[in-house]
Amino acid sequence: MTKTTASDFGFGTQIRKSPYFDATVRWGATGFSVYNHMYIPRDFGDPVQNFWNLVSKAILCDVAVERQVEITGPDAARFTQLLTPRDLSQCAVGQCKYVLITNAEGGILNDPVLLRLAENHFWLSLADSDVLLWAQGVAVHSGMDVTITEPDVSPLQLQGPNSGEIMKALFGDRINDLRYYWLEEMDLDGIPLVVSRTGWSSELGYELYLRDDSRGDELWEKIMAAGEPHGIAAGHTSSIRRIEGGMLSYHADMDIHTNPYELGLDRLVNLDANSDFIGRQALQNIRDTGVTRKQVGLEISAEPLRGANTTFWPVLNSSETVGKVTSAVYSPRLESNIALAMLDIESAQTGTRLQVQLPTGSATATVVEKPFYDPKKKITTKS
User: Are the C-beta atoms of residues 268 and 100 closer than 8 Å to each other?
Assistant: First the structure.
């Protein structure tokens, strides 16, 4: 069989490549998508095998598409708080927070991980939307002394139960002191990094933020070599595992027309905090009046789905459309078709029986609690 090389892909210059692009092709990437104006590897072969590699051993994923919005300057802390309804007053230097970026109507523009590198130095590690432009626009009219840039930073995700042992092989026992949702600035044989105990997998994992894209190939190969005795595989973010864990995908499970209360993310909105943020009044109104729809979990009774959905599937209650399936997949571990769906509030109660219009026909579905697996996040938070 002919080996695939980077030259086999017909890519243009208008979409950026990550510093790990050539390495991912060498290690088996055969398909790419576009995310934050960059190519991201989406196919390393069988997605079910990718899932089992993740949950049983470890995978290394190129997520350089998680671009950073860097906020610095004397007013950086106050400005960063302006962007999010989550109270950041207790966010320490070295800590990470999952946050929402909201607009004046309370709609969600992005759901990044916030990293606080110094008193007035923040990164927003983005999902797929142009928050750099939003933040720069807000800064122009804020009257605050801040600088908003996209730095030379490209993350990798090392995820799975063996990721801790691989990190120990790379960095020594000091990695054991890195707590869940905290970061540390490190270097690996002179390669400058920020390392965090975070990741988009619902598994134990780490993210390594490379601060010099000329070292991308070198970093990839060092991690793969260290991981070989621990069964590491090159891979991609697993739709199966993230849906099992109830993790959200921007543009799929939420968008600018979705508010935090519909997603059950009330904990990320601190209306009682003594801080100002964009969308405060709108979110207060939504909280006071309540929501008309809600995100839920569904189990779909049908033949095992072949891959994840690529369109929104209508959900019906007694022939009336009451919502849509936003993310769906077959879980080989749970032996069930599982899905996230946005439903009218009257149809969102646990146990409600509904119908889903699949591409292959109608199927019965039941509203269930989410996440579907490890609801208390014992896997990701274990020491």
Answer: yes
C-alpha closest to that of 78 among 275, 335, 344, 338? 275
Residues 230 and 296 in one domain: no
Using a 10 angstrom Cβ sphere, with 0-12 exposed, 13-18 middle and 19 or more buried, the burial of residue 75 is middle
Residues 236 and 296 in one domain: no
Q: Per-residue pLDDT tens for 328-341?
A: 999 999 999 999 99
Q: Which residue has the tokens 């099992």?
A: 244
Cis bond upstream, residue 332 (ω within 30): no
Residue range 276-320, pLDDT digits in tens: 999 999 999 999 999 999 999 999 999 999 989 999 999 999 999
Check: pTM over 0.85? Answer yes or no. yes
Q: Model confidence over 335-367: pLDDT tens digits?
A: 999 999 999 999 999 999 999 999 999 999 999
Measured in degrees and rounded to the nearest 5, phi and psi for residue 271 equal: -75, -20
Token readout for 311 is 């369109």
| Token pair in block for residue 252 | 């799929």
Parent domain of 334:
292-372
